[in-house]
Amino acid sequence: MRLRISHTTTYRYEPPATGVIQILRLTPGSHDGQYVAEWQIDVSTDSRLDMHEDAFGNVTHVMTHGAIEDLTITVGGLIETHDTGGVLRGTDERFPPSLFLRQTSLTSVNPAMENFARELRAESETDALGFLHTLMTQVNEHMTFDEDPTNSGTSAIEAFGGKRGVCQDYAHIFIACARSGGVPARFVSGHFLRSDGTVNQQAGHAWAEAYIPDLGWVGFDPANCICTTEAHARVAIGLDYLGAAPIRGTRYGGGAETLTVSVKVDQAGRPGQSQWQSQS
Amino acid sequence: MLSRTAENLYWLARYVERAEYIARTIDATLRVTALPAAYIGKTNEWESALLTAGVSESFFQAYEEANEQNVVEYLSFAPQNSSSIRNCIEAARLNSRSVRTALTSEMWDTINSAWIELQEVWNKGTSSREELAKFLRFVQEASLRFDGSAYRTMLRNDAYWFSRLGLHLERADNTARILDVKYHVLLPEEEHVGGPLDFYQWTSILRSVSATTAYHWVYRETLKPWLIADLLILNDSLPRSLASCYGNLVRNLDQIGVAYGRQGPSQRHARGIRNRLEHSNMNDIFQHGVHEFIQEFISDNSRLGEIITKQYLI
């Protein structure tokens, strides 16, 4: 499937900031289930954009800019994907999977979650894949999708307690529980083509990957309760949201910062609705 | 487009590329053998030229030993060698004649006049080194003209993409073969490193892919075997590197896939190879063995040729 993706982030600083540094993890890489046919980054002002790779192999751009009032970063392109049943092949793996057992503050567990994970783990005995599938279903049932109560800094514990959250919280809970059950897991940020035909989205998507010795890394999307499909375009990975966040940065000076994000994910080549022009 | 047409375009480009590559191999070997034996060691360079051209077996069925005269003759003109320059140009011309209407007149002219020159001027082969140099120059220029006229005059549609597929697949194969035959020279062994033997051997590897100047531009260093391997395998700014060939193969296959509205095994296979190249680094390659890496690449590459043939050309 060919996905056309466009992801726009707009910052407005009032009063203007005297300097801005941002780290962009907005550039997807290719692997066996995904081929990036076209990709580009557009920044609304002249600024430095230095390309690096972080420790996990994500392509990052460091953007630095002087005094600035507003800033728009648009990235987009075409990605060709195909379904691999969630199994990931041909990625650049730089660390042993056990690294991804590490807890972070966003993905730590409390006793309630530990019990939750332990029960599921005991049920499925030695079957790690079965454990992850039940975990995904259980997380999906436990949570209600709601954009209001959580933000990008909400931890798995808070979201689990509040039973409400967005895809990112689902992923954090899944990762925290999987790790507590002894399965390496990591956070993935990316894009998702919605099956209901909605093209405009308010944010990118997030899901998780877990490591199973016989299969390798497998993608689990607890918010949609599916393993990753050709509708998923994978951009960056990390231990948690902070490691894979599309944009992280800091600014000097300035006051209030307003941030708007808009994402469009569509199937390329899908015929749009043609409209007849008529005489008025 | 008919599979038949696609096949002709694909093989046309492959044969032209192959002719040029053989000419380069002869040229590079001539330069090495012109040096005193003390510089180049006891290896028979003509044998390794046959190996890189992949015709060693058939050659030794006809000849006892490999020397300048019979190898040059065999690689350039021998009718029984299906990859000789003469046969390549003839095959290229035959292919282009059957798809004459799919080519631009510039491309047809290039191939046709090369073929005519081959008949009229080079019919009897070459009798001196000077003539041979002229002949090799003629072959390389024909290929440059063909490539340039395709690039400048062809419509960017499936006809162009299929001819590019042939070119890049052949090119990747050729570069990999050089590395395969010469890999022992590239292996860092204590007693060898830095000797004149290596220096001339390395230069000859670079020369056969016309990358001597490129090497110095990229690394600004004396010749080091691992850097040469890095340049020829992983550096995608060098047009003859494996990475660059695969960048192009993947792009052209993708364009074909988009134009036909359908992706298939050849797209997936090519992307797989490109991913592996993209995620490799020279340390790992040396650690796991250059020879194994190249062997695997050559078989992957010819597998891609088979898959393309199956998916599009028959």
Write the layout of secondary structure elements.
The complex is a heterodimer of chains A (280) and B (314).
Chain A: E1 2-27, E2 34-43, E3 48-53, E4 59-65, E5 68-81, H1 111-124, H2 128-142, E6 144-145, H3 156-162, E7 164-165, H4 167-180, E8 185-192, E9 200-201, E10 205-212, E11 216-221, E12 226-227, E13 232-238, H5 241-244, E14 247-253, E15 256-267
Parallel strand pairs in A: 6-7
Antiparallel strand pairs in A: 1-4, 1-5, 1-14, 1-15, 2-5, 3-4, 8-10, 8-13, 9-15, 10-11, 11-12
Helix pairs in contact in A: 1-2, 1-4, 2-4, 3-4
Chain B: H1 3-33, H2 37-40, H3 45-52, H4 56-62, H5 68-76, H6 85-98, H7 105-120, H8 129-153, H9 158-186, H10 196-208, H11 212-219, H12 225-233, H13 242-260, H14 265-278, H15 282-288, H16 290-313
Helix pairs in contact in B: 1-3, 1-5, 1-6, 1-8, 1-9, 1-10, 6-7, 7-8, 9-10, 9-12, 9-13, 9-16, 13-14, 14-16
**Basic shape of chain B:** globular
Helix-strand topology string of chain B:
HHHHHHHHHHHHHHHH
How many extended strands of chain B? 0
The appropriate CATH architecture of chain A is Roll
Helix fraction of chain A? 10-25%
How far is it from the N-terminal to the C-terminal residue of chain A, by CA? 39 Å
Number of helices of chain B: 16
Number of DSSP-assigned strands of chain A? 15
Residues in β-strands, percent of chain B: under 5%
Sheet with most strands of chain A: 8 strands, antiparallel
